[in-house]
Amino acid sequence: MAQPKVVLVACGTAVATSTVVALAIEEAMAERGIPVVIRQCKATEVRSMVADVDIVVATTPVPDDLGKPTFKGLPFLTGIGKSQVLDDIEKALRS
Fold it and tell me: Is residue 56 a contact partner of residue 69, using CB atoms and an 8 Å limit?
């Protein structure tokens, strides 16, 4: 089995919207055969937690110099562009 990829999901409080996004990513990547480990955090904690993750998904602004692929989480909340973001996340996790 492939080594799980680590996805850091951030929002303002690490409770509400990041949970919605985390579940959506976990389910979608499972359907695509990519095992993931999801970590949730506050946006203010991203910089201190980014070192050993593969990608970052955030529903609120985060620094743009994290050195990891970073995706906007808003499509998971609105549904607009969600499938494209999932395709982009899959591509990043497979690379």
Answer: yes
Active site residue 41: no
Report the Cα 48 to chain-centroid distance in Å: 16
CA distances from 50 to 7, 12, 20, 82 (A): 9, 16, 20, 23
70-72 sheet: strands from edge to edge: 36-42, 5-11, 55-58, 70-72
- pLDDT tens-digit profile of 44-54? 999 999 999 99
pTM above 0.85, yes or no: yes
Q: Which of 11, 41, 53, 55 is catalytic?
A: 11
